[in-house]
Amino acid sequence: MKNIPRIFVGNDIQSGIQIPASKDIAHYLTRVMRRNDCLCFGGGNEFCATLSDDKKFIIIGDKTAHSDPSNNITLMFAPIKRMDDMLNMATQMGVARFQPIITERTVANHINWGRMEKIIIEAAEQSNRNSVPQILPAKKFTDLDLSNVVFADERAAYGKEIPTDSNADTILIGPEGGFSDAEFNALDAAGAIGIGLGKTILRAEVAAVVALGKLIK
Predict the structure, then answer these.
(1) What is d(CA 197, CA 187) in angstroms, rounded to the nearest whole number?
(2) In this predicted model, what pLDDT tens digit does every residue of 58-79 receive, in sequence order?
């Protein structure tokens, strides 16, 4: 299956159905890749597929043996001005959900989520996933359940790691200005797991990737 283009067609996919092919997909397959076969995925599954002769439909064939390498991690983050790289890399690392969080110091309030979703889909297609992460509706920090959350803690000792017996599957990354004192107090009171990310100061998007690397097993 190497070098065959992969296309996300939604989560309701099964063998034997025909899915309308957009002009962009038809152009990509026939003009850019110069072929009419591809792999289509969604909902955790992958299928062989072909473009119909009239280029109007994608015909879904047999399911492949490729299993979804994604995980069940939720990345909670305060929206930042430059989120493209963070969403792209976190998608490649297999996260299942993105949860935007509004903290006291969140400053990026006008995000083009349609564009962000396109970035996520492209990253899923390229990284051999069978699923696309879900973007959840934004939540206020004060509405979060912090009891089983791993968070990037700039106060933490540099070598502080996630306990080996932890079953946490949620990571929280703060805003560019860091968590407020009240938010740190709430995290501590809830028993959230603070981890250190090294000796240097990291940009928020880099911090997300480093933290994910510590949680993914």
Answers:
(1) 17
(2) 999 999 999 999 999 999 999 9
CA distance 107 to 104: 9
Q: Which residues contact 23 (CB under 8 A, 6 or more apart)?
A: none
**DSSP three-state, residue 152:** strand
> What domains sit in the chain, N to C, each tagged with a CATH number?
6-63 (2.40.240.20), 74-215 (3.40.1280.10)
Chain segment 160-187, per-residue pLDDT in tens: 666 666 777 999 998 888 899 999 999 9
Task: Work out the number of other CB atoms within 10 angstroms of the CB of residue 206.
Answer: 17
Q: Which two tokens stand for residue 200?
A: 């240097």
Closest by CA position to 175, among listed 208, 142, 126: 208
For every residue of 10-56, DSSP letters joined together read -S---TT-EEEPPHHHHHIIIIIS--SEEEEEETTEEEEEEE-TTSS
Cα(38)–Cα(5) distance, integer angstroms? 5
